[in-house]
């Protein structure tokens, strides 16, 4: 929580002003019953009109001062809370941008979205209320008790019994409700997760007729949230009758003893009115404690969740020996006894990988699902760090390059292309800062998508829906490939990124890429694609089985021969 509230430091002056104005409001509210008692004792009982006018005028002036202070306080409270929310959202976003894949695996997307929205809003609202009324309520209780003792110590002694009991009770409610609200927020995460999965997979749900199954899944998570929320709110709100009961009992005793003292002539009527006013104001302030406890409990749970993300230790960073002088110029890649295990998994995904890829070479990676091909790809731009061994680019360990320089020299086309809401130009230019329209069109031509774009009514200004749902699979792949090509990378990696392309389009694409003179790595399941490569790397269970040309592997690898026969039959094709 301390980490989260450090974002309030830039607003120190606004907070000081807000609290000063709160103190003005509080002072006026505490003085009004005192002056009312004076007006009754000196004006009403003494039938002195001048005293009534004097004390009445003072009370009206103080009330106006309190009104102005309240309006100004609201302005500074709003300025502080909104500024805090803006700053912490920006910090959260920047922090998540630095996350490695390993960090992202620890936090599901739904949980991060909840933190950005629900949790930030909860802390923001609590800060506003904290500057506006939360501090005033406990100070009103304390000030009301003190003023009651100033007016009449014998009547006010009742407060010394009831107020400590109420404070201890509220402290217990706060501790218990804070834990309950943490469980509520986790259930909010679950609801968001189910909603995101359903919205993203709506077409698949309709195709498989899984609507009823998904409705049951959502109903379960939604019911869990509703039940936990209802249970938590009932617990917190049940504290209010207890608070009011104890406070009303104290008022009854005050009136009982005040009546006896007034009859005996030891207490003025004005003093009794003032004491009762203080008791009522104290009771009203204590009744607000339920609301304060509710807000503070939710804020505490939300602040802990925000602090958890902000305090994450990112496990990928620039090494000490990294230098801006080191730039990738050729694209040679060397794996030297590389092993890697995903966090939390017992078995390594890659085991003692050693292979050398020459500059401008085209290498195809072939292997069964789960053989480690994609993982090998992800190690090159340091999306993960290796457990052991060394990866070198241009005969230099990749840790010698700054992360930004390393990744800027690599074009990566993922297995599942992700497009953003915006125009086709926006999506292709996304791959390079400051890309010109000429560069966009050149990349589109190389990716074999230019002709299709020119047939669209708005051409390159055509809007792409979220995740590219208004494009076919092959069209999305080619836009994604154009996005990688526009940066003119030294190393280009295709993670089964041409699977939705026909043979003619794929052939034109690979020929265009060959003219870019970059080192190209292709994960593929198609022998026809692998045959176009200079060499083929055959993988299985995280190990390299063999490396060679198509003809070489046919001669010495039974596994490769079996794969080729499964796609072409007994007539084995020769490399072109």
Helix and strand topology:
Elements: H1 2-5, H2 12-44, H3 49-97, H4 101-106, H5 109-134, H6 136-151, H7 153-156, H8 159-200, H9 202-207, H10 211-237, H11 239-264, H12 269-310, E1 333-340, E2 350-357, E3 362-367, H13 373-379, E4 388-393, E5 396-397, H14 403-408, E6 410-413, E7 422-423, H15 424-429, H16 437-446, H17 450-455, E8 463-464, H18 473-485, E9 491-495, H19 503-514, E10 519-523, H20 527-530, E11 535-540, E12 543-548, H21 550-556, H22 558-568
Helix pairs in contact: 2-3, 2-6, 2-12, 3-5, 5-8, 5-12, 6-12, 8-10, 8-11, 8-12, 11-12, 16-18, 21-22
Q: Can you walk me through this structure?
A:
The protein has helices at 2-5, 12-44, 49-97, 101-106, 109-134, 136-151, 153-156, 159-200, 202-207, 211-237, 239-264, 269-310, 373-379, 403-408, 424-429, 437-446, 450-455, 473-485, 503-514, 527-530, 550-556, 558-568; strands at 333-340, 350-357, 362-367, 388-393, 396-397, 410-413, 422-423, 463-464, 491-495, 519-523, 535-540, 543-548. With 576 residues, it is of the alpha/beta class. The chain has 3 domains: 2-310, Up-down Bundle (ABC transporter transmembrane region fold), CATH 1.20.1560.10; 325-409 and 489-576, P-loop containing nucleotide triphosphate hydrolases (Rossmann fold, 3-Layer(aba) Sandwich); 422-482, no CATH class. The strands form 3 sheets. The chain has a 6-stranded mixed β-sheet, sandwiched between helices. A hairpin with a 2-residue loop joins strand 4 and strand 5 (396-397). The mean pLDDT is 83.
